[in-house]
Amino acid sequence: MSGRSEHDVPWDDDFWEVSHAAARLTQYACEVAARCLDDGMLRLQFTQEMAYVGKGIVEDVRTGRKTPEQGLIQIRKEHAELADQVFQYSKLVAGLAAGVIQVAGGVAVCKLTAGVACALGGGALVQHGINAIYENGKNIYQGRTDTVGPLRKGYQEVAKALGGKASHGNVVYGVTEILLSGFGMGRLVISPAARKLFRYIRSDKVRAYKVAGGALITFELGMNVMTGELVWVEWNKE
Fold it and tell me: What is the pLDDT of residue 165?
């Protein structure tokens, strides 16, 4: 295929479709940067890089180095890869938030029961929450997805000591996460209508899910679904 002159512009529908797709890619990159990047210089650098990507594809189509179909395929591929990166980042942020909620829930259990239920559930919530904060926080900071926290590592080492594999430890870790989520939502908390005189009694308490609100319950269910998917992946590892 002979290349076009630098001054030849293919003013046809196919070329404009590629141009518009490149513009939409740049717009999406701007939206992603606004949501995910706090630093202004990083936002600017990221959006400029994505704009250059789209501009380069348009230029290749204009000069005949790529067909419009090839240009559209490449733009769609860039868009899909960016969307996947956003999804992975969102999961890390959600995992970090879930860790904070676990720690807060574990501390609340220990305070409400004067330490009695710490060993049964509160302490485990705190430990898993801290581990989630460590893993997801480090992954976000370093731009990775494979950080293994000390608690998860402990599960893996126990599994290997019992003759299993690290993946077996990951399965137990994930199942424990789901069970702790159920414990956290089913634990007793002080009812908003309670009026303390000397100390709270059983009638002053309700299950946490009754006062959690729809958004938090949906968040917990979403995290459990993601954890369940990871458990399934680990379970099916050779």
Answer: 92
Buried b (16+ CB within 10 A) or exposed e, 97-126: ebbebbbebbbbbbebeeeebbeebbbbbb
Query: 149 by DSSP, 3-state: which?
Result: coil
- Report the alpha-carbon distance of residue 36 to residue 107 in Å, rounded: 30
| Residue 186: per-residue pLDDT | 72
What residue spans of 113-213 are helical by DSSP H?
Answer: 123-142, 150-161, 166-186, 208-212
CA gap 16, 102 in Å, rounded: 51
pTM above 0.85, yes or no: no
CA–CA gap between residue 92 and residue 89 (Å, rounded):
5
| Terminal Cα-to-Cα distance of the chain (whole angstroms) | 49
CA distance 94 to 79: 22
Which residues partner with 205 through β-bridges? Answer: 190
Classify each residue of 195-223 as buried b or exposed e, where b means 16 or more C-beta atoms within 10 Å of its C-beta: eeeeeeeeebeeebbeebeeeeeebbeeb
Looking from the CA of 75 toward its CB, the CA atoms found within 13 Å total 31
For 110-152, the pLDDT digits (tens) are 777 666 667 667 788 899 999 999 999 999 888 888 899 999 9
What tokens does 68 get? Answer: 């419009």
State the amino acid at position 97 in one-letter form.
A
